[in-house]
Specification:
Elements (H helix, E strand, L loop, with lengths): L6 H9 L3 H8 L3 H8 L8 H10 L4 H10 L10 H9 L8 E4 H14 L4 E5 L9 H5 L11 H26 L4 E6 H12 L6 H18 L4 E6 L6 E5 L7 E5 L15 E6 L2 H16 L3 H4 L4 H12 L4 H9 L3 H8 L8
Parallel strand pairs: 2-3, 3-4
Antiparallel strand pairs: 1-7, 2-5, 5-6, 6-7
Length: 347
């Protein structure tokens, strides 16, 4: 029997975190982690290695290097279900959890949204869960045989995570969960200008569909989807999940205004999550400020006033008719959110 070097024990030790914390943030049991660091597990499962390292903000490339040390192949699509199952067991408890890069943020959003309850979102546009898949995944999502394993897996994993989050969203809508979204007018209009002026294939069309999906849901269920345009720009983008629960969670999204074509490593502190009462109170105060800054004209006759605002905004780009047409026939996934039909039964 081959004896493998206990690489993962060193990674856990270097993190400086307690096993209890790593267990909560990875979804791997404390018992398993204890056996692992005590050399009672010679070759940990591939999904266990990936989930532990993802919880510690390691890149997919770094995970594949460690997997090779245990004589495993690089991460591939068949590995996704087990990693997602571990991810569903994650808990947002105790100390603030910092997150680097977008894959780690997307991973944590799934168990956070699964807890249900009123969701408060402060950002520059409607929820990404109304986005067509092609817009969320970006213009370069096709992979080929020449792509490195980490890139191929990243795209497949991102698709799977987005599908799971949409399924959770649809079930939350069906359960009557309330969603409050607060958007800075200037940030929104800057975002619309950027995506409609983009010279990237069908991105302008996808952006129109994105807003049309959100508008259709708002129009169909205005009490459930409360979206407000603010006359202030919050410094932070954030989310409070379960605001009507006894144990709400907050998720701060770091601002990332600019992208650079660079060979330097593009890894940034993306944000953090927390269930600290003082942190929750801080962001609830920010939410009260957001509510006080809602455009009064758009608050009257809601949601018709908001739909008119969107229509006039897109009219300035010559695409109001397209926006209205997409509203009349939103994406199938958005229709499931609006009507509750055809929602996925498994996440």
């Amino acid at each position: 029997m081959r004896i493998f070097e206990n690489i993962i024990r060193g990674i856990i030790g270097d993190s400086g975190l307690k096993l209890n914390t790593i267990s909560k943030t990875s979804g791997i049991s404390h018992t398993y982690l204890t056996k692992l660091i005590n050399d009672n597990i010679n070759r940990p499962g591939k999904d266990k290695i990936a989930s532990i390292m993802l919880a510690l903000n390691h890149s997919i490339e770094e995970i594949n290097t460690v997997l090779a040390g245990y004589d495993y192949q690089a991460l591939d699509e068949p590995d996704i279900p087990e990693i997602l199952e571990n991810n569903r067991k994650r808990k947002i408890q105790g100390n603030t959890l910092s997150l680097f890069d977008d894959i780690h943020v997307r991973l944590l959003l799934s168990p956070m949204e699964r807890m249900g309850g009123t969701k408060i979102l402060v950002k520059k546009a409607p929820s990404v869960l109304f986005m067509p898949n092609e817009l969320y995944l970006g213009p370069k999502t096709d992979t080929n045989e020449s792509d490195p394993p980490d890139k191929s897996f990243y795209h497949a994993f991102t698709r799977a995570l987005f599908k799971e989050r949409k399924a959770i969203f649809q079930m939350s809508c069906d359960a009557g969960t309330r969603f409050e979204t607060y958007i800075c007018r200037h940030c929104l209009e800057e975002y619309v200008k950027k995506v409609l002026d983009a010279d990237q294939g069908n991105q302008p069309e996808l952006a129109l569909r994105f807003f049309a999906n959100a508008a259709a849901a708002i129009q169909a269920n205005p009490d459930q989807h409360r979206t407000w345009i603010m006359e202030r720009c919050p410094w932070f983008d954030y989310m409070i999940q379960g605001d009507d629960h006894d144990d709400p969670k907050v998720f701060f999204f770091g601002k990332k205004s600019h992208n650079y074509d660079s060979t330097s490593e593009q890894v940034n502190l993306q944000g953090f999550s927390s269930d600290s009462p003082s942190m929750i109170d801080l962001f609830r105060k920010e939410t009260r400020l957001c509510r006080s800054a809602i455009d009064p004209q758009l608050k009257k006759n809601y949601p018709d006033s908001l739909i008119r605002y969107f229509t006039q905004l897109f009219r300035s780009y010559g695409c109001a008719e397209a926006f209205t047409a997409y509203m009349d026939r939103p994406d199938p996934a958005a229709m499931a959110v609006i009507t509750g039909d055809d929602r996925p039964r498994s996440t």
